[in-house]
Amino acid sequence: MAGGKGTRMIFDDEKLLLKYKKPIILHVVDSLKNSKCFTKILAVTSINSPKTKKLLEENNIETFDTSGIGYVEDLNSVLKNINDNVFVTSGDLPLLDKEIIQTITNQFDPKKTWTSILVTKNFLTSLGLESNFSVDFDNQICHYTGISMVNPEKISSLEKLIENYIVLDDKRIAFNLNSKQDYDLLGTA
Q1: Which of 45, 160, 170, 178 is 20 to 30 Å from 92 by CA-CA measure?
Q2: Which domain holds residue 163?
């Protein structure tokens, strides 16, 4: 997912172009490629991310344009066009690497329609991070990482969707950039 506005970042440029050794979006794409878990990588872009789209295309990454209305709407529009299992990740995970991707994909169960990867609130707090998107799972507060595994063929309606969860307290997936403070903390990670 590479089409967000990044409004919470308060930077002049697009969030996914921020550098952590290289532009964050390229770090995520390279981690996906290096994992050797996927037959295709597709970056979901929008009118909110024209420079990100240009950078991706210059690096031979296929893009899929969406309306840019919101994360859920953009993800829905792309899933309607895919007939294979999908590993969804936010483009703002600068510590993502091939090993954690392999760990996650090895736990994929295609019988489940949607599996979201979570971290516990305690773990997130220990890293100095916060998130507005939480769920109570297994008697603890957990937070979404921006990573999901989806079988789009089993989706008939997102309103009736049964979500499966996997908790993995790992900074490589917990550390997504939602604020300037997160980006500042990245230098200490």
Answers
A1: 160
A2: 7-186
